[in-house]
């Protein structure tokens, strides 16, 4: 049985699109880069820690397969995680304004004795944002809980002028790579008996 080790409603919605049945594990994994830790290594490490903690939680079930994911925004080698408050979000948006940044999403899929990993890197270009634009965006609240203080699945599309890469990857769960890992575990495509409620609206 597949379990998604994530509190993120976006990851749940995206994984549902692949038509599999899965459980959800609510875990709290500390997210803090080590000094001088390269961004991609950090994102991989956190995804692996989430999956590993999920597997530990499922230790009574030897056939459990657990998926963990992590997403960070990276600009000039600096990692932008989830903003702590609106002022932090404003500072992030000012830094991203008028520039192209990377969004790195890492996946780790584990079972007892096996791990597969994948990484999706996308490039996102922001148009220049005025202080007014930033204030309007902050008022939507969309930035809360999102790496880099924006959500590509929402109003942020009004200032994203270019995306090169994976839309689902920027949202937190790159579905092409997820499907590849699931194939590696013999879980994709889903058997016809798996129920599929269909995608729900993005938030
Ligand atoms: C850049 C971007 C990020 N995000 C979200 C995806 C992730 O949920 C979040 C990055 O934080 P993460 O730490 O990757 O994930 P999370 O804390 O939300 O959930 P969990 O650790 O329990 O799996 O930012 C968007 O929804 N849209 C975007 O455009």
UniProtKB/TrEMBL annotation:
**What enzyme class is recorded for this protein?**
hydrolase
Pfam families, alphabetically? Maf
Q: Which residues form the active site?
A: 70 (proton acceptor)
| Subcellular localization, as worded in the UniProt entry | Cytoplasm
**Swiss-Prot/TrEMBL site (Important for substrate specificity) positions:** 10, 71, 153
Q: Would the keyword ATP-binding turn up in this protein's UniProt record?
A: no
Q: What is its EC number?
A: 3.6.1.9
Gene3D superfamilies for the chain: 3.90.950.10
Catalyses: UTP + H2O = UMP + diphosphate + H(+); dTTP + H2O = dTMP + diphosphate + H(+)
Cofactor or coenzyme needed:
a divalent metal cation
Primary residence: cytoplasm
Keyword list, A-Z: Cytoplasm, Hydrolase, Nucleotide metabolism
Q: PANTHER family from the entry?
A: BIFUNCTIONAL DTTP/UTP PYROPHOSPHATASE/METHYLTRANSFERASE PROTEIN-RELATED, BIFUNCTIONAL DTTP_UTP PYROPHOSPHATASE_METHYLTRANSFERASE PROTEIN-RELATED
Q: What does this gene product do?
A: Nucleoside triphosphate pyrophosphatase that hydrolyzes dTTP and UTP. May have a dual role in cell division arrest and in preventing the incorporation of modified nucleotides into cellular nucleic acids.
The family note in this entry says: Belongs to the Maf family. YhdE subfamily.
**What name has this protein been given in UniProt?**
dTTP/UTP pyrophosphatase
